[in-house]
Specification:
Layout lengths: L6 E7 L4 H15 L6 E7 L11 E2 H9 L2 H17 L11 E2 L3 H11 L4 H14 L7 H10 L4 H9 L4 H13 L7 E4 L3 E4 L4 H21 L1
Parallel strand pairs: 1-2
Antiparallel strand pairs: 1-5, 3-4, 5-6
Helix pairs in contact: 1-3, 1-9, 4-5, 5-6, 6-7
């Protein structure tokens, strides 16, 4: 595919969404299966739990408020844990002690995109949350994630300490809700095809191929 026909893939998701954790891996596998197709993945923000305060809350309080109890959540969550394991992703839910508001996580991903490191930062934040019990409400945890992914530490620290792009991220997340997106992950391929949920990689690959073919026709016709 010509560079001018690079396929843009928008992934609308949240870093504390387990199906987004899995869906990102499915997307990566689909892309890897179509090396002849040039793609650009753009990570768009979504607030799975917009009601969680900026400072976060305890995981127990969160699960009780949203699901009735920790036990009720765990009893219905095994399918997700198994789905994550099936694609090589550890999900250590017992390590998660704090439920964050993810505004600052999305700000960090936005800044990382400017350096071409958005996928790495998003993955690192998800790993911290789902497999290491990292407290994403703590600036030092976010800073460490940024540095781990090759971003300048001093710059990341200053950005996190500011309110830069709070409105930008909030508006974009709200626009997803206003567009009718009620569940994530949600994928948009070249502005033509949309898929909701952590779909099998083969299904995502088929969407990539279909839209890439249409883009190639448009380029050839120009």
């Amino acid at each position: 595919m010509a560079a001018s026909a690079t396929l843009a893939i928008d992934m609308i998701s949240d870093v504390v969404c387990p199906w987004c954790y899995i869906g990102k891996r499915m997307l990566e596998r689909a892309i890897a299966s179509k090396p002849e197709i040039a793609v650009e993945v753009r990570f768009r923000p979504y607030f799975l739990n917009p009601w969680v305060p900026r400072q976060g809350i305890s995981r127990e309080d969160y699960l009780t408020a949203k699901f009735g109890s920790v036990e009720r959540y765990n009893s219905g969550n095994n399918r997700v844990v198994e789905a994550a394991a099936a694609v090589g992703l550890p999900y250590q839910r017992e390590l998660i002690k704090r439920q964050p508001n993810t505004l600052d996580c999305h700000r960090l991903i936005l800044w990382a995109a400017q350096a071409g490191r958005a996928a790495a930062v998003k993955q690192r934040l998800m790993e911290l949350y789902f497999s290491e019990g990292g407290d994403l409400t703590q600036p030092e945890v976010l800073l460490a994630a940024a540095v781990d992914c090759g971003l300048p530490g001093d710059e990341a620290r200053a950005l996190l300490a500011s309110e830069r792009d709070v409105d930008t991220v909030t508006r974009e997340a709200q626009s997803a809700k206003e567009a009718g997106i009620e569940g994530v992950p949600f994928f948009i391929f070249g502005g033509m095809i949309a898929l909701s949920g952590a779909q099998p990689s083969e299904y995502i690959a088929a969407a990539i191929e279909r839209v890439a073919g249409e883009l190639a026709k448009r380029v050839a016709a120009e």
